[in-house]
Amino acid sequence: MSSNELKHNREVKSNLLPLYLKNHRVGKVHSKFNIGLNVQFDDALIYVGGGGSPLSSFGLNIEEEKLNAILTSVRIDDMVVNKDDKLIFYSVDGTINIYYKEIEEVDLTLPKIKCSINEIPNTGLYNYLENIEFEKCIGIKLDEETSKHVDLLLNSDKADWNINVMIIRFFAGRGKGLTPSGDDILIGFTLALMMFGKFNIWRQALESGVTRDRTTMISVAYLSALLEGYASEYFIRLVKLIDDVEMAAIEETIEEVRSFGHTSGNDTLFGFLLGLKFLRNQKVYTFSIPSKND
Are 204 and 160 in contact (CB under 8 A)? Predict the structure, then answer.
């Protein structure tokens, strides 16, 4: 989907959203921003944004007028009820309903790609990313200790549970913001890996290591969605670019991703590039963690 299409005031929902809402009834406003808000249902988040914004992996985009009414009325911890295919926001000004059942559903599952690992260095996407000086625009300083763990990301065996855990503990929650830079790097790296293989041990280590006691719930929500095979709209477009030869499309999408958040877009792209470099240089590991009965 092009940026021109994103500019329309469209109402859309992620195909992950109905799965999240299916088993949840009572939630609360978790966090508010100028352009949207998160609703918490137990351990799941739903992001409600405006119709002109890229769709979150666990998101619902509505008309700007209704979104502004909600943002003006509700406060953190206000109750939200999921009932009869609608979200009911309770505030001091009364209730506001979002009828989500008939809203258009967008497929945000990770797409299949044609590119092989051997072809990565020849892609326009890889070469464009490699020419960005990420050390000047990411949210954490590439000091000696950080560089050491970046090197581990690039060169360690992702079938080694202990090394995976060490890497993840270093990056998880590192940096400032609603999604700390270290989390974004891990998400970008994992997004690249998941394009080409299962990497089960790495993914299990992420699930174990990126938790709410180590980082923000928003980071955990994005990572959980990714591990289930879903990514936000911009990143779905990014994945598809690995098969694209049109540099204009590559440049447009990357620059849009870079503009996301204070450094979040650059952090994620940096991790994504590291993932592509790892894949270029390493064997693909598809081992699974042994079960307790093995």
Answer: no
